[in-house]
Amino acid sequence: MAAAAAKITAVDFLQGSCRQSLFPETKSRHSHRLWGSIHRRRTAVPLRLSTRGSIISNSSRVLVPVRPKALISDNVSALVDGDSAKMGDSQSKVVHLFRCPLIQESASVELLKLVQTKISNQIIALKTEQCFNVRLDSDLSSEKFQVLKWLLQETYEPENLGAESFLDEERQKDGFNVVIVEVGPRLSFTTTWSANAVSICLACGLTEINRMERSRRYLLYVKAGSGCGNGRRSCI
Fold it and tell me: Coil, helix or strand for 25?
């Protein structure tokens, strides 16, 4: 019974609690580099905006605060500042798995109201998903990949986990511009969530995984002609 309870707890941890909480509290006292650890002072949480769903922004989550910044761009792989640290290196690869939705529908409604109030009333709808960025020392076998999917997917919604972004399918819609916002950890630092997730993966025999980070992705539907998501790079 204790072993079964431990497995359930591990799966629940990897699946995350962000569907119930939009803004998790900052608890970590220290930020960790990939190859060491340093101390950082806390500052505001940044956002970077991009209409390219394939771009993973190098911005910070609540757990790893840095300077605030935001950007909208179309077909431009640009960052607001010079931070270009990457999660992978020359001897590792990164696999991305996507799961939707990030938050429940009722929470999405409340978030949309907040976005319309704080950012722009031209944003008329939004959809969410989360991305698991998994760094590997070597390729996973098909059996181990199924174990990884089992850890990350919802028990009763396995079809909502995939290797391709669910939001990319929604990017083209008549009469609307779309903007994808992705918020994740600064990739030069390892979060405490990643450390715990890797420990769970190792306990399940996934020894190839050495890091796993989550990012939150939001697809915003903007009225056509409003000036957002129209190919001009601009700040919100």
Answer: coil
Cβ–Cβ under 8 Å, residues 103 and 217: no
Average pLDDT over residues 183-193: 88
Count of beta carbons in the 10 Å neighbourhood of residue 77: 9
* Angle of helix 2-15 versus helix 192-203 axis, rounded to 10: 140
Q: What is the CA radius of gyration of the chain?
A: 18
CA distances from 40 to 27, 28, 49, 98, 194 (A): 13, 11, 24, 30, 18
Centre a 10 Å sphere on the Cβ of residue 166 and count the other Cβ atoms it contains: 19
196 Rama class: left (phi>0) / alpha (psi -120 to 50) / beta: alpha
Report long-range pairs for 105-109 (Cβ below 8 Å, ≥24 apart). Answer: 107/19, 107/20, 107/22
Q: Is 29 helix (H, G, I), strand (E, B) or coil?
A: coil
The Cα–Cα gap between 204 and 7 comes to 9
Q: Flag whether pLDDT at 192 surpasses 90.
A: yes
pTM of structure: 0.60
In angstroms, the Cα distances linking 2 to 6, 9, 14, 84 are 6, 11, 19, 44
- 3-class SS letters over 140-168: CCHHHHHHHHHHHCECCEHHHEECCCCCH
**Tens digit of each residue's pLDDT (9 = 90 or more) over 88-101:** 555 679 999 999 99
Round the average pLDDT of the chain to a whole number and report it.
70
Structure tokens at 81: 């500042």
Residue type, 54: S
Structure-token pair, residue 126: 């939004």
